[in-house]
Amino acid sequence: MKTTITTIVAAIATAATILPASTMAASDHAGHGAMPSHQAAPNATKMVDGQVKKIDKAAGKVTLAHGPLVNLGMDMPMTMVFRVKDATWLDQMKEGDKIRFTAENVNGAITVVQFEPAK
Ligand SMILES: [Cu+2]
Q: How, if at all, do strands 78-84 and 98-106 pair?
């Protein structure tokens, strides 16, 4: 009698352990399925449009007519001189070219830090 009760209790305990676990696994899986499948990308500095007005290779500078550069406090389009992080970029642009770029204040000099030709 005692042995039988112990066996039954053990059987119930085992069943009780397995059932909630499988139920939880099922609901957990459903929860993952409902989650969005993509995550927002880190918000990198946005590329802005610019047009090359003048190139000064000797000085490593370029004059660009550019759209707003919010990260530099320029809310309005304007034309101004930039330094360039990579002087070889000046070989990849010519006056009149449309480009996409980002600029930062590098040691007090407004510098183009990212550049690509506009398509
Ligand atoms: Cu500006």
A: unpaired
> pTM of the entire structure?
0.63
Q: Is residue 72 scored above 60 in pLDDT?
A: yes
Q: Dihedral sign for Cα 85, 64, 80, 68, please.
A: negative
CA–centroid distance, residue 44 to ligand 1 (Å): 19
Q: How far is the CA of 69 from the centre of ligand 1 (A)?
A: 7
Phi then psi dihedrals of residue 77, to 5 deg: -60, 150
Q: What is the pLDDT of residues 15-50, one digit of tens each?
A: 555 555 444 444 454 444 445 445 444 556 789 999
| 33 C-alpha to ligand 1 centroid (Å) | 47
Ligand 1 centre distance from Cα of residue 85 (Å): 16
Which residues crowd ion ligand 1, with CB under 5 Å? 74, 78, 80
CA of 94 to the centre of ligand 1 (A): 19
Cβ distance 113 to 102 under 8 Å? Answer: yes
Ordered by start, the domain boundaries in the chain are: 1-39, 48-117
List, for residues 77-108, the tens digit of each pLDDT value: 999 999 999 999 999 999 999 999 999 999 99
- The fold of the 48-117 domain, in CATH, is OB fold (Dihydrolipoamide Acetyltransferase, E2P) (2.40.50)
